[in-house]
Amino acid sequence: MRWPRASAPAWPVHVLYLVASAVLATAYALAGDAGRPVVYTLGILIPFSTFALAIAVGHLPDRWPWITAAGGLVVLLCIQVRWPGWIGQRHLGQAEGSATDFAMSAAHLLFLLGAGAALRRRASQDMGGIIDMGLLGLCAGGPIWEWVVQPRLPAGSPVAGQIMLLADLLVMCGVIGCMVRMRTMPGRGKATIVYLAVGSALVLAGQIAGTIFENRVISAELLLLAFPPMAAAALHPDAPGLTARPQGSTRAAGAHLGWLTAALCANPLIAAVQAVRGLQSTSLLLPVGTLLIIPLVTLRIRQLSTQRDRAEQTLAYHATHDELTGLFNRRHIGTEIDRALAEVNRGELDGITVLLCDLDGFKPINDRYGHPAGDEVLKVVASRLTAAVRDGDLVGRLGGDEFVVVCRGAHEPAQDRITAAVRQPIPVPAGVVSVGLTIGAAQARPGENVDRDVLIGLADMAMYAGKAARRTAPSRR
Predict the structure, then answer these.
(1) Separation of alpha carbons 381 and 438, rounded Å
(2) Parallel, antiparallel or unpaired: strands 394-399 and 402-408
(3) What is the spatial distance between Cα 50 and Cα 4, in angstroms, rounded to a whole number?
(4) pLDDT for 45
(5) How many beta carbons lie within 10 A of that of residue 245, not counting itself?
């Protein structure tokens, strides 16, 4: 039996998370300079071990996102082995541009790629909302960098180090915003998303604390506390639902143009505030932040445009098609008949034939087997009518069990073939049924000046005459 089961209680995971956090924080605070690298290494091994365990027992069916995230933990572990005292010393958040800074950014990138891969299916249901919250997170990162982090960086910090630190901060803010949005979406995995968001927020807080606080223990503790929620995310009974596509429809995201406006105005607004305050320092926020924001804004605009195009196509389809059968509806068929009659009257078309088709024996099927069986019969009949007519002929549903075929040209429609196709047995959930078909035909040729109502009326009279003749004639099978 797979462990932990989806029906298992979640409180043991919560308890383990709190206990692990308390133990790690206490141990790090009490350990000396020699013992703290060991505590930090053990903190890295906790989520790595839980990831491996959850994957091994089959608790995480979609393994690759978690394996990718585990790769980030391996990079952190390598940093600890190569530079064991780096976290404990005041290097974090100093934008030194060193190999350790680069390795730390690579580790964060791997973990974020894993989280993004795990959430891709859930995000696809509300891509607009995800982009909006990502933009909001990026906008929030701008003021944090400009007014909290950058003023406290050591003098002479290299540009490469500042770019790495800024990009890491902005991406973290954007990812946290995306996770907040995903938490509001329906489906399983919400507790796992919360744990991942808490871990990301602690990493972000640790980076900021490394810049603004002289006490190096604070930033190290915050980074250390990011590992237990990562471990809890993989162990939670709801974790398999993280990569499952939500069932049913999700709440459609609104346009949220305010987010887009904020994203576009954030950098210029910060630059304006700096100018008003008389600050002369050159900011990395404008070029780097814009490089991250503009692609997302472009993606959001494209997504909105795609949504609009799809909505227009859907409206156009429903305006001309029957919802149940997918055939043309009464309005569209009437328009096509009018167009064809106009061509006939102008001599551009040598004729038009209208076939009114009424099902025989349909009502007893509805009464005996129910409306779902009746709907299935109508859909099958629609498919058979479409297959039996000639290319270029139009098939529509007038309503109920009445169908219409519009044949352009003076050719004789294959009524016998249509009737034989419809009379074939039709399987329904409760058994096999069959229906008959009565066809009434009417033609219009050049010079007759027949309008649509007259043409349909003639076809209707022919159809009812056929039904009357069938009632008085011996049954033929």
Answers:
(1) 13
(2) antiparallel
(3) 12
(4) 94
(5) 12
